[in-house]
Every structure is written in C-alpha cells, then in structure tokens.
Write a sequence for this structure.
C-alpha cells in the first residue's frame, strides 16, 4: 500500500494521472508533460513534492554528526543557508543526494528522496548509535516529520511574482527577498510557511514546507495566482535538461559522486563517511564518467540502452528524453574514460538502431 | 467517443474502410491510446510497399515518458503513410481518429475486419481495463 500526500484528492480532482513513485502515489502529469515543462521554463509551475522527506536533526552534536554523514560541511554552513550534497557509504557510493538547511546553530532540516527516506533514517541511526551516543541521550535527535508536513515546489521565472502576491516574510518583506540557497519563515495568507529558495528544475523557484493541514488551500491559492500544476513527468524532463542527477539513475550506492561529475559538492578534506575512497578517486581518476549526449531528432534513448563507439559498447544510458526546451533528444550516461570529450561522436543502440549521439557539455540547459 | 464507422483492437488501434472495392483501410490509434501515452513526440513508421500482418509490430510510437509498439490491426500492404506525423506527431494527440491517421493499407481479405471489435465492444473493453 503506497502512501498518499494530503494533496492526493486535489490531484485527482484536477485531472492528475497517478503513478506509484518511491512508495507514494503521485501525479505524473495533469495537462500534459510538454505543456507543464513550458510553464516552468516561461511562467510558473507547482509540484507536490511532499513525498520527499523532512528530517529535522537537532542537538548540541547535530553539526558534528552531519559533518560526519555528509559530503558537504554542516558546521560551516551559516544559519539561514542551504546546501546540496551527498550522503555516501564507506566506499563512496551515494546512499542519497539531499538539500539541507541550517535552521539554528544546533538544528537542521534535511530533505532526502522519497524512496530513500527509510534507508537514510536507518543509516543515520546506525551511525548515531555507533559514534554519537557518548554525549548522552539527546545529544543528537532525529525527527522525521514527513507525514505531518507538506512540501510544495513553486518553480519558474514568474515564481517570485506569484509568491509575492500571496506571501510575505515574517519581518514584512516580500517573500521573494529570500535569497538563492537560503530559507526564511513566511506568512502565506496568514499560514506559517518555511520558504527555501531551491528546486530541481534549473529555474528560479521556491520550496514551501508547511503543515500538512494547510497544503490544500496553499496549493489552490498558488493555482489561482497563475501557477500551473505539474507532475513527476515534467519534473523529470526539467531536471534532465538541467543535468541534475536522479538517485537510482545517475547515482546509487554503487556509484560515486566523482564518477557522476559532482566533485564540487564533495569536500576534499574532512572526516566524513566515504572521504578516503572519494579522495582516492579524485587523485587516481575513475574508470567511467557521466557524460551528456545530444541526439538529432526526437527519438530518445532510455535508461539501460547501450552506448557504442565503433560498434563496441563503451557505456550505458542512465536517463534520456526528448527535450522540448532544446527540441532535440538528450541523455546522460556512463562511458569509459577516454570517451568523455565534448564533441566526440558516439552512438546509442535505440532498440536495435545505432543512432549517432554527440558528447555534449552539461548542463544542456542553463537559465538566462 | 469512439466512432462507429470502424473496427478496433485490444491494442487500441482502429481500422476504417475507405474504399471497400479497393480493400483499402485507414489505420490509427484510439483516443484512449493517445491519452494513455501522453504527449507523442516521435513515430517510427513502415514505408509504402511494406507488408504488415494482423497483430504484428509495424512501428513504434514514442511519448515523452515511454515507447510503445504499434501493431497492425490488419494484414496487407502499406499504400500510404501519414507524412505529417514526422513533423507533427502531436496530430495523433489532437485528432486520433481523423487527421492523426497513421497508415493506409490494402487488405488481402476485407473479411479479416470481422475479427475486430465494434465501437461498442471496444468501449466496453476499455471500461473493463480500468
């Protein structure tokens, strides 16, 4: 039995088509993926991302604990700021990627992927028991508030204007005064919301965390203010155009952030889990690397399709789609070192057709 | 919703007689099929002159999210292909029963259509698949 967000009935009522995803029943589309992608690239779209986790980590040792668990530093992150990084195992494989926020000196909010929430909780508890139980009970507390809260992403160039019609910060400033990769508390039509200026689309935007009980009226107000409901289908196309990795595709427990081209989110120094393995990979290189591929036309490579050079398999596709923003097919995949230079022509075996594919710099799309 | 002037398959294709004397039918996919696929972006279609066979793969249809095989509802030879779908595959989303026809086929035996479902039977069939 899958979980449902508090917006489930709203999705059904507004024509959302529901699919299982990460243990949840979620809308894959409403008006159509192409229409939804366009809305986010040119206007504003909203996504119910309540299936993603909300883990609150607090206590005198919270910063030290997260410094140990994350590839990005928690103790040096300023209160009010957010950071993207990985949770790695001791081999440097990615248990999950996450955005975390520093709420106070001794308190953080960490957002794991929906399907990885149980694995992240188990991993955190294992290391809390192993290394952070000495400070006495309560030195670090882990509070999973995914079910009691909702998370709504408002994304697109018009999202600041849309949000400002409905929401102010607690000091009276407009909501759009929230800076990129920062968070503020706000009042959304008198409802308390946490506003993070982050997202997963390659556009400007916000993620609003709020009481689950407030999700329906907030969603409805955003729709009435001009934001188009968007589903997981559009979200996947948008994140692929922006070359943002999806756990289970570009990254997984057997794949490192170095292979995935995510070095900039990995500290060189620091006593965090996976650091020795990742440092070795940084120095010695990896056998394979994630690359972008562009293919003429609209027939898209899909995850698992072989990447060829001279008829020999040199890699595999991890994600692919027709890109409506670029009007061509795009993909990401792992290839052997030596096949990663932008401009190089490879091929993808699309159901028996060897289709030419050019190695392209990532991301495919950057907002202007 | 499903026009009564044609026959249907369980794979959500339709076949409509255009010229009985010439054993010529038009072939496409149904409204239900296009709605399930979502935004169609690409067709891989047979060529004029190709032989197609009842319920055998004749091409592929690709939406943003997925790829599906296209099955021929009839046995015969392709006499025309809807070239408009190359640049405008969304025609099948917009108008699956008319402008979004996919191929025209000259049947070996017009009686083959008796194997297919009527509009009413097809309607009952898609209700039952929900």
């Amino acid at each position: 039995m899958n979980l449902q967000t508090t917006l489930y009935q709203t999705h059904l009522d507004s024509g959302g088509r529901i699919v299982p995803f990460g243990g949840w029943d979620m809308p894959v589309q409403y008006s159509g993926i192409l229409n939804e992608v366009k809305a986010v690239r040119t206007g504003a779209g909203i996504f119910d991302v309540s299936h993603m986790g909300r883990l609150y980590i607090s206590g005198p040792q919270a910063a030290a604990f997260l410094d140990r668990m994350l590839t990005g530093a928690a103790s040096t992150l300023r209160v009010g700021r957010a950071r993207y990084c990985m949770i790695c195992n001791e081999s440097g494989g990615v248990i999950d990627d996450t955005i975390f926020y520093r709420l106070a000196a001794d308190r953080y909010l960490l957002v794991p992927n929906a399907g990885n929430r149980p694995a992240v909780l188990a991993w955190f508890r294992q290391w809390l028991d192993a290394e952070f139980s000495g400070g006495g009970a309560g030195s670090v507390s882990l509070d999973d508030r995914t079910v009691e809260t909702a998370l709504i992403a408002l994304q697109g160039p018009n999202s600041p204007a849309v949000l400002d019609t409905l929401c102010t910060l607690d000091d009276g400033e407009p909501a759009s005064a929230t800076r990129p990769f920062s968070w503020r508390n706000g009042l959304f039509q008198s409802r308390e919301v946490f506003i993070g200026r982050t997202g997963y689309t390659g556009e400007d935007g916000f993620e609003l965390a709020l009481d689950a009980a407030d999700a329906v009226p907030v969603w409805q107000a955003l729709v009435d203010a001009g934001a188009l409901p968007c589903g997981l289908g559009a979200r996947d196309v948008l994140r692929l155009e922006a070359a943002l990795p999806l756990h289970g595709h570009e990254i997984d427990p057997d794949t490192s952030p170095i292979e995935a081209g995510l070095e900039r989110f990995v500290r060189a120094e620091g006593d965090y889990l996976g650091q020795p393995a990742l440092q070795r990979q940084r120095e010695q290189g990896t056998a394979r690397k994630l690359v972008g591929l562009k293919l003429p036309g609209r027939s898209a490579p899909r995850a698992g399709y072989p990447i060829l050079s001279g008829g020999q398999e040199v890699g595999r596709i991890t994600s692919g789609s027709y890109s409506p923003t670029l009007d061509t097919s795009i993909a990401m995949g792992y290839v052997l070192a030596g096949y990663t230079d932008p401009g190089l022509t490879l091929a993808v075996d699309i159901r028996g057709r060897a289709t030419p594919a050019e190695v392209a710099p990532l991301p495919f799309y950057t907002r202007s | 919703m499903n026009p009564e002037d044609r026959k249907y398959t369980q794979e959500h294709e339709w076949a409509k007689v255009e010229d009985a004397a010439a054993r010529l039918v038009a072939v496409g996919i149904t409204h239900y099929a296009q709605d399930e696929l979502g935004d169609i972006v690409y067709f891989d279609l047979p060529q004029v002159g190709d032989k197609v066979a009842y319920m055998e793969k004749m091409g592929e249809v690709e939406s943003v999210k997925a790829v599906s095989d296209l099955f021929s509802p009839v046995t015969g030879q392709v006499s025309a292909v809807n070239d408009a779908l190359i640049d405008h595959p969304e025609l099948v989303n917009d108008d699956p029963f008319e402008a979004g026809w996919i191929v025209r086929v000259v049947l070996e035996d017009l009686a083959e259509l008796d194997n297919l479902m009527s509009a009413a039977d097809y309607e009952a069939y898609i209700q039952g698949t929900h």
The radius of gyration of chain B is 13 Å. Chain B touches chain A at residues 38-39, 41-42, 44, 60, 62-65, 67, 89 (CB under 8 Å). Residues 119-129 of chain B form the longest helix (11 residues).
